[in-house]
Amino acid sequence: MHPYIQGGWKNLTNSNAPGSSRNLPPQPSIFGALPDPFRSRSEAPKPTLLSFTFGSFQLNILNCTVTDAQSRVYFRIMTDTPTLGYTVFLNAANQPTTIIEWLAHPFVEIRGILSKRRTTDYLPLAPNSSHRTMEVLGKHFVWVPGGEYIFLYSAGVGRPQVYAQVSRGDGAVTLELTAEAIQMGLLEICVTATFLLQCGRNID
């Protein structure tokens, strides 16, 4: 399934596609035409991307493992086990790092990073459904769909910087982060955001 639809965005470039709005004209990315920023900047060195794959699942990623390019397990994600209505992320040391509560309203908490809050407050959807914002570690970011990817950009003044991209295909969801994103402490944050954007459940 295309990541636009999984993330809850409207497909603003195709009026016949699922999730599109016939009342809205095609709209460009809020950062301009950047369909594939990691591969289009011929004038600058391409950043090294570290890949993490959500795999070993059937229909969705509600129960899966997150591995790196060397197949090392970084997280195990379990939903409704051992407690119904909850998703738990366990790290390589088998310690819980992220807990998502799927009761009346979905809540998310990332231990030591993000206090418990509604998912709609963690990843609020823009009024025109073109992007989702994210405020963590004292910084502002935006998740913006473009082409076959969802990109994570810095937000604020100056030229937007790309920190991550998410894609879906071949029975897996792939999150790729720059080395700088890892150094900033965005790994668990982006793994959690990717899960919420691609799990197929309503987070709004």
In CATH, what is the class? Mainly Beta
Order of helices and strands, N to C?
HHEEEEEEEHEEEEEHH
Number of helices: 5
Quaternary structure annotation: single chain
CATH topology heading: Porin
Question: What Rg, in angstroms, do the CA atoms define?
Answer: 16 Å
Strand order of the largest sheet: 7-6-5-4-3-2-1-12-11-10-9-8
Task: Examine the secondary-structure arrangement and name the CATH architecture.
Answer: Beta Barrel
Helix content: 10-25%
* Major sheet size, sense and barrel closure: 12 strands, antiparallel
The gross shape turns out to be: globular
- Which parts are unreliable, with pLDDT below 50 for 5 consecutive residues or more? 1-5, 9-36
End-to-end Cα distance: 20 Å
Give a count of the beta strands, DSSP E runs of length 2 or more: 12
Structural class computed from helices and strand pairing: mainly beta
Describe this structure in words.
This protein has 204 residues and is mostly beta strands. 15% of the residues lie in helices and 37% in strands. The chain has helices at residues 3-6, 37-40, 119-122, 179-184, 187-198; strands at residues 49-55, 64-68, 73-79, 86-91, 96-102, 106-110, 114-118, 132-136, 139-146, 149-154, 162-169, 172-178. The protein starts with a helix and ends in a 6-residue tail after the last helix.
